[in-house]
Amino acid sequence: MKLPVTEMNVAATRNASLEEKILKLKKDRNAIILAHNYQRGEIQDIADLVGDSLELSQKAAKTSAEVIVFCGVHFMAETAAILCPDMTVLLPDINAGCPMANMINAEQLRQKKRELPGAAVVTYVNSTAEVKAESDFCCTSANGVRVVESVDNQEVLFIPDQYLGHYIASKTGKKMTLWPGYCPTHLRILPEDIVRRRREHPRARVVVHPECRPEVIALADEATSTSGICRYAAREDVSELVVGTELGIIHRLRKENPNKKFIPISEQAICPNMKLITLEKVLWSLEEMSPVVKVPEGIRLKAKAAVDRMLAIV
Ligand code: 13P
Ligand code: SF4
User: Which residues line ligand 1 (CB under 6 A)?
Assistant: First the structure.
């Protein structure tokens, strides 16, 4: 029987044909596809690994493939390029950046280090390679508390996310100077969103990302990285969950837990940069082997030292 031609049918047929071409070319190129938890559902579905920043960089460090197609934002592809200099790292849309990562540059960091000579610099992975190269330790939202706990210095300069820094300081009791960066997407999540969702779904737990404002974190049951949110959702005692992070993660949560209910905390929590990656762009990047993300060797070696110090702790 022939299906009626609707927009949805046309899109589904196109996606199926794109997927087929991508998977064939991926094999021919000896490539792997890494996708962040915030990617579009159709991108997550073709990926070899869907994960948080830490898992994706660990996978990049260990792979035997020759090409990584990084479905995420620029700093994530750059981290893969820092760890795997002999591989070709493709970012299917070179404009997929992270506004937070651009809230501090290397010169601003050097100036701040002169003001705080005794402080250890702990840098969120959401940062440029040049900034990582000026740092002592890198960290992600999954290991920030452990990394800061392991630092011997009395004082820590934490960049660029003031909110993740505030959360880590509250957990470790360390004296931390915070750079005033933030994630524009997580800033859109407000305390009143939690109050409303709790009223609408009284049995639901609330989990948020530590990039959220402290007032939001204070009202949640748990604050954790994106993959931490996936583990929390899988717990036996959780059947309904209000999800306080970028909406792309809901696709993975529903796929892994088909019998549970997931409620986005706010329809505003969308990262436009994460959504720039589409199936078409993934195919084109594999066809043309472009855009390539590369880090100059001098910067790469210094940035790698900060990333390696993190990977040694986790
Ligand atoms: P995760 O490391 O928790 O995946 O977070 C990355 C990110 O960009 C959050 O906005
Ligand atoms: Fe950057 Fe926020 Fe987007 Fe994450 S969600 S990539 S921190 S802008």
Answer: 37, 52-53, 126, 140-142, 183, 209, 211, 225-226
pTM, two decimal places: 0.95
Supply the pLDDT for residue 8.
79
Q: Which atom of ligand 2 is nearest to the CA of 185?
A: 2
Classify each residue of 231-246 as buried b or exposed e, where b means 16 or more C-beta atoms within 10 Å of its C-beta.
ebbeeeebeebbbbbb
Share of the chain above pLDDT 70, in %: 99
Q: How many CB atoms lie within 10 A of CB 184?
A: 13
Q: How many angstroms separate the alpha carbon of residue 1 from the centre of ligand 2?
A: 45
Separation between Cα atoms, residue 81 and residue 60, nearest integer Å: 9
Residue with tokens 């199936």: 279
CA gap 203, 267 in Å, rounded: 21
**Residue closest by Cα to atom 5 of ligand 2:** 271
Strands 67-71 and 49-51, by their bridges, are: unpaired
Q: How far is Cα 7 from Cα 98, in angstroms, rounded to an integer?
A: 32
State the distance from the centre of ligand 2 to the C-alpha of 154, rounded, in angstroms. Answer: 30
- Chain segment 103-140, per-residue pLDDT in tens: 999 999 999 999 999 999 999 999 999 999 999 999 99
Residue 10 pLDDT grade (very low, low, confident, very high; cuts 50, 70, 90): confident
